[in-house]
Amino acid sequence: MNRFLCLMFLLLASLTLPAITQEFQLTADTVTLEFENIKIRDIIFHKSDQVKLRYDSKEEVQVEAGYDRLKITAPHEAGIKLYLPDQKTYVYHRDNSVYTFTPRRMSILGAEGELIEFDEKRLIVQKDGTSLVEISERGIMVEDDDEKVTIGKEGIIVQSDDEDTQLTGFWGKLLGSVIKSIAHTSVTYAGKRPEKIARLVINDDGDNDFVLGGDMDWDTDSTERKGKSGKETYTPTEPSEITLLNRNGSVQIEAWDEDFLELSWEMTSLKGKSELEKVQVDISWGRLIEVETVHLQNNPRVSVKYEIKIPANVTLEEISTSNGAIQIRGTAGDGQLQTSNGRITIKDHQGNLTAHTSNGKIKASDITGDLDASTSNGSLSIENIRGQLKAVTSNGSIEISKCSRISELRTSNSSISAELPVLQENVVIRTSNGSVRLWLDPHNDLKLNASTSNGKIRHEGLALEVTKSSRDSLSAIFNSGLYNMNITTSNGNIELKELETVE
Predict the structure, then answer these.
(1) Quick one: how far is CA 332 from the chain centroid?
(2) Quick one: pLDDT at residue 410?
(3) 87-91, 138-142, 350-354 — which is least confidently predicted?
(4) Who's near 437: CB < 8 A, 6+ residues apart?
(5) Contact at 8 Å (CB) between 371 and 386?
(6) Which tens digits make up the pLDDT trace of 228-248?
(7) Is the pLDDT of residue 12 over 80?
(8) Phi/psi at 18 (nearest 5 deg)?
(9) Is a pLDDT exceeding 60 seen at residue 14?
(10) Which sign, positive or negative, has the C-alpha torsion 96, 97, 98, 101?
(11) Are residues 396 and 344 in contact, defined by beta-carbon separation less than 8 angstroms?
(12) What stretch of H or E contains 297?
């Protein structure tokens, strides 16, 4: 009997092996993932800054964690659950393709330079910076050299060099709307769950629990959103600076002609009024005005939106949030703007700025000082920066105009387009899997070095003294050659044209 009980105990113990949890700190914003003999049971995004790994104690799992790399291996196939910080970008390589994903976005760069990007709003297929396929709430667009097909609520329209064909009327519009709805619903589902696609890619299987259009968790606009709001004013008696630390929500700051500051905030949650009690807004007035969203409990499901109007004697110091946009207008000060999963918009600012986001675009214009702008999975659109400009992104295009002090323009998997007046310092322009198009003021004094792979270099209307030229490289002197301009891309063309100037 005792032997039987011992055997039962050992059997039960073997069936209830404890799970092992390991945690790692990876400080880089972009992390490369590598796996060998690993099956991903689930990828879960969480708010912590730690990567967590869970697996049965019987599994022989080894982990190598570095600054920007996580490698997980096992001598035999092992199953794991992977918990990833939701504010980082993750990269995985397979079959000469590169998969980049975040909680709300995925991009796939193929071996031939084709780029597929999707989020919950749209899917785009590009090559050499040209959009070939786009699926969004507006409909479906497919384009090649000869034809363009548009499917939407207006019907099905085929445009070509020879003739246009339209299927409209009641049945055409009905069919177009149905096709558009099915496609957009599938894109929306996939865009909300990039981690599921990443898991399938890593596991290299056709797991049946991921089918576009099935097992959907629909957004429910009818869900009642609970909220509360507040407003305060303050009249500074001396020049002051403002800092704002938000955790989840948008921030809008605008200068006005009044002599006092007006701060409004709105707190909302889909989890009910009790969830709102987990968050409070703390404000400290003085020469340093401090505003902070304080979490009283872990991970409250609450969003806080700020709208602030400031007088002329209040300048920006640091504005930080996540999962929300930052918008400033008519402001001043040497400040820092930082968010994630949100765009940054800057209009008419006096002073130097550092602007950083991820999974969002940056749009800036009319800044008297320096601008250091960086993002990932988002575009940069920048105009009229009088100070020095540095613009860096990945998986996003860069468009520049009226900026004469550019130190660096850098992206990947997208194009760079810039209208450049007379430059006043050396500049590096670099991308991969995208084209570079530059319009240069004829009075520039530059030493040009341009190179590409799997692309061509063209220059039109510029009085260049060419010292070296081939299909994929160019060295030339433009006027006196005072400043260096280095241009590099891969799988894309480089085009140099003269910028028309107004006398």
Answers:
(1) 26
(2) 94
(3) 138-142
(4) 415, 416, 417, 418, 494, 495, 497
(5) no
(6) 899 999 999 999 999 999 988
(7) no
(8) -70, 150
(9) no
(10) negative
(11) no
(12) none
